[in-house]
Amino acid sequence: MLALPRTITLLLSLCIAACATAGSTPRDSAPSGLSGVLETQRGWWRALATGDTAFLHAHSAHPLSLTLSSGRTFDRAATIAQAAAFAASTPPTFGWSDETVRLVAPGVALATTRATESAGLVSIAYRFVTVLERDGAAWRVTFAQSTRDAEFTPRLTAAAAGSMADYVGDYRGPRGGTVRVVARDSVLALIEPSGRELRMEPIGPSLFEFDYLSPAGVIIRIAFARDANGRVTSANRLIPGAVNTFVRVP
């Protein structure tokens, strides 16, 4: 585990509560003494995505700890190297909302925000938590963490999705259990062995998405595979880091 600044032990215990606690301050009414905190937070995360290593050098404290939504953790040098290596060729644009800032210790600020990072046709939503320490007249990031904010995919119209009949049937899972897929007008439902019914809505050719977040907070998708004759042969459950194949029962 990376070494943390002297203030981080206290701040980590406050982070979750601070994000929702009354008294958090929106960007347009930052209290006296916190001017520039949210601007630094915005600039720091933008610099990380665009490879602006000069900004990161100038606005990152010694030491620095960064945890990305992938779970990977970086110190100061690795953060700057990561930004330089993976900067997008087309700089993304950012939309910001729900910005808050509060002073949690003398010279230490906790800032949070929601951000939508867009590049071309792709947009990804994040929640950022940033701890900054005052260094003279400037604020420098000492701890930062990003979390992916799950967003559902736009649904296809019934006309674009086509008939649901091709997908109806029983499917055997990798551990031997069997689930049933049934049609419900312009959507599908997956019926688990327990009898629980889960709604799946079309988002692309032979691609469906559940209409709820899993207990782990992720969106689950089902991709149906076809053989050379166009017959559906399997349902593949797509979750972060894994694909579970359910073979169609003849």
Distance between the termini: 51 Å
The overall pLDDT average reads 85
Care to count the β-strands? 15
Biggest sheet layout: 8 strands, antiparallel, barrel
**Quaternary state, please?**
single chain
Low-confidence stretches: 1-31
How many helices?
Answer: 5
The succession of helices and strands, N to C, reads HEHHEEHEEEEHEEEEEEEE
Strand content: over 45%
Order the strands across the largest sheet as they lie in space. 8-9-10-11-12-13-14-15
Q: What is the radius of gyration computed over CA atoms, rounded to a whole number of angstroms? A: 23 Å
Report the structural category: alpha+beta
Helix share, percent:
10-25%
Shape: elongated
What does it look like?
There is one protein chain. With 250 residues, the protein is an alpha+beta fold. Helix content is 20%, strand content 46%. It has helices at 8-20, 37-50, 53-59, 76-86, 158-161; strands spanning 25-26, 60-67, 73-74, 93-105, 108-119, 122-135, 138-148, 169-172, 178-184, 187-191, 197-204, 207-213, 219-226, 232-239, 242-248. The strands form 2 sheets. It has an 8-stranded antiparallel barrel with strand order 8-9-10-11-12-13-14-15. A 7-stranded mixed β-sheet has the order 1-4-5-6-7-2-3, with helices on both faces. A hairpin with a 5-residue loop joins strand 8 (169-172) and strand 9 (178-184). Helix 2 (37-50) packs antiparallel against helix 3 (53-59) and helix 2 packs across helix 4 (76-86). It is elongated and about 70 Å long. Residues 1-31 have low confidence and may be disordered.
